[in-house]
Amino acid sequence: MAELELSELQLVAQRIRSFPDFPTPGVLFRDVSPLLKDPAAFRASIHLLARHLRAAHGGRIDYVAGLDSRGFLFGPSLAQELGLGFVLIRKSGKLPGPTVRALYSLEYGKAELEMQADALEPGKKVVVVDDLLATGGTMRAACELLGRLRAEVLECVSLVELSSLRGRERLGPVPFFSLLQYE
After folding, report:
1. Is 8 an active-site residue?
2. Which residues of the chain have a pLDDT value below 50?
């Protein structure tokens, strides 16, 4: 890893804070709020993700898709950095017009993601972004949703990965990349 890239990664890592026992006892919450407050750290996170995607996919990406809601914080900036458009993957009931939906399981029930039916043309190549990968359920549902629109998911990326929850395994053959990994 180049020295500049390492210093950018250290800056990003320094801006992720932890809250024990939030939202429930036994959970260590990783908070990206300090990173959003620091323009240099935020810019570094976007540069690092963009650098990875350029190296992995060159100019083959057509769109960046962001997950509701924190994927909306990073996705548009990443898309701009790559010179691409951005598409929304929302929680159910938030989009006008015809939509396509995917149901997924949460630890406490079920939820749905949706996209506008005309958000992507068939065959478009997409990268999915979110702030954090935990169990992988939401990211997997996003990949399924994009598949229903006949898009090709090239990769999923996040700033933070909670590796002990093994969320990347739920993504199956879709490659996954994260800037920071925590147990």
Report:
1. no
2. none
